[in-house]
From TrEMBL:
Transmembrane segments: 12-36, 51-71, 165-185, 197-218, 239-259, 271-291
Renumbered residue ranges of the record's region Disordered: 421-446
Organism listed in the record: Spirodela intermedia
Membrane topology designation: Multi-pass membrane protein
Coiled-coil ranges from the UniProt annotation: 381-408
UniProt main location, coarse: membrane
Tagged with keyword Transmembrane helix: yes
Keywords: Coiled coil, Membrane, Transmembrane, Transmembrane helix
One Gene Ontology cellular component annotation held by this UniProt entry: membrane
Top-level lineage group: Eukaryota
The name this protein goes by in its record: Uncharacterized protein
Subcellular localization: Membrane
Length: 446
């Protein structure tokens, strides 16, 4: 009877973390999909909303994968890798969402180029970006060149964010391979395991991607003011940044043996998943206020008059301060007109556009990033090959010179031979030394 009660109590204590996590997961799914369906029902701005929906999906995906890890520790490793990969994709979606709010890539680059012509007294421009130069903070300013607003800055930020998505996927595949051969060692900071090395690589990659995103936000935050970018940025950054460092810190504390409480013993290494389930429930509530569908449902949204700055950028002329101040005023623009309602995508078409449309753009950006990363590597390899070729040619040339000098040492110069024969001829008596000459002398003797 005592053993039965102890087993029942142990099962209850083991299931209560699963029960509490399940409640938060249910709330997360309910609120997140409610918000997604609202956006799909008011799918008036596909370029913005396709990436916005991808960003909102981050919360339920995090929640589901963490809960599955709690239910079955055998699939926890795969779930964690999938969650981390989607984290990189969500960061990419956030950048593309901001670009779409600015009017697309071309318009974003034009707006950045227009800032170069604005004087430092113009309120649109931060003092740090006068003359169109983005200076890196210490110690990056010792390692990197300044970025110039325009295509250079835009491409640098784009590559910096996409590289994290690519590297995250590659490291996930490497982690699976290391796990199969038994040398991954999740949560173990020992040199013979692959986990600490991948953690360092991903840490630098994620930090650089976040740095690029911060720089892009800082440059464009004034123009994105109508969509309240600060709240969106802080919510997204807290999810991405805190969950990553949270996982690293939890793994490090477990390796030191600090987690010795009852809850830690029950959850063991899955305490990170339990915390994420709780956090995503809170994040789902915040998303309702930070990424609402109401502006798209009303068919109108407040935006800045971007055309003024674009016109000056296209004419390559300094902007008029009066028109710059006018462009600062918010204008209510109706996004959906009666004649456009017939062209609005229905629900299945909206879902297809979210999946296929965003996927096509992502593939193009990945190709762009890979080409720009591979190109300097190819140039470097070509220079190295050229250097080795020059070295080998110099070695062959030296060998030929050495061989020629060695062969010449066995030859006697012609002028030296002529000198020796001339000396011998001077010491000989007159007359021929041939046998016929000697016989003639003997015959003439008395």
């Amino acid at each position: 009877m005592l053993s039965l009660s102890l087993s029942a109590e142990s099962g209850l204590l083991h299931s209560w973390p699963i029960l509490t996590a399940g409640i938060f997961v249910s709330v997360t799914l309910l609120l997140s999909f409610y918000l997604i369906f609202e956006h799909l029902g008011a799918y008036n701005q596909p370029e913005e909303q396709k990436f916005l929906i991808g960003l909102i999906l981050m919360v339920p995906i995090y929640s589901i994968e963490s809960f599955l890890s709690l239910l079955d520790s055998k699939i926890a490793f795969v779930c964690e890798l999938m969650r981390d990969c989607y984290e990189a994709f969500a960061m990419y979606c956030f950048e593309r969402y901001l670009i779409a709010c600015l009017g697309g890539e071309e318009n974003t680059i034009k707006l950045m180029e227009a800032q170069v012509e604005i004087s430092s007294s113009t309120p649109l421009l931060e003092a740090a970006y006068v003359n169109g130069v983005v200076e890196h903070p210490f110690p990056l300013n010792w390692l990197l060149k300044d970025w110039y607003l325009g295509p250079h800055f835009y491409q640098s930020v784009k590559i910096g964010i996409v590289q994290y998505m690519i590297l995250k996927t590659v490291c996930a595949l490497v982690a699976i391979l290391l796990e199969l051969i038994g040398v991954y060692g999740e949560g173990k900071f020992e040199w013979r395991y692959g986990y600490p090395y991948l953690a360092v690589v991903l840490n630098f990659s994620q930090t650089w991607a976040l740095y690029c995103l911060v720089q892009f936000y800082t440059v464009t935050k004034d123009k994105l003011e109508p969509i309240k970018p600060l709240a969106k940025f802080l919510v997204f950054k807290s999810i991405v940044f805190l969950t990553w460092w949270q996982g690293v810190i939890v793994a490090f504390l477990f390796s030191l043996g600090i987690f010795k409480g009852f809850l830690a013993q029950e959850l063991k290494t899955r305490i990170q998943d339990y915390i994420i389930c709780i956090e995503m429930g809170v994040a789902a509530v915040v998303h309702l206020y930070v990424f609402p569908a109401r502006p798209y449902q009303r068919g109108e949204r407040c935006i800045r008059n971007m055309a003024v700055m674009s016109d000056y950028a296209s004419l390559d002329a300094p902007p008029d301060p009066e028109e710059v101040r006018d462009s600062e005023r918010l204008t209510r623009v109706r996004l959906s007109r009666p004649e456009d309602r017939e062209k609005r995508l229905n629900f299945p078409q909206s879902v297809r556009d979210v999946v296929v449309g965003s996927g096509e753009i992502m593939v193009d950006d990945v190709k762009f990033t890979v080409s720009h990363v591979v190109e300097p590597v190819e140039r470097g390899i070509a220079r190295i090959n050229e250097t080795f070729h020059q070295i080998s040619e110099n070695v062959r040339r030296q060998e030929r010179r050495r061989k020629k000098a060695k062969d010449d040492c066995y030859l006697v110069p012609l002028h030296s031979r002529s000198r020796e024969f001339s000396e011998i001829r001077d010491h000989l008596p007159e007359g021929s030394v041939s046998d016929s000459g000697l016989s003639r002398k003997r015959s003439t003797a008395p």
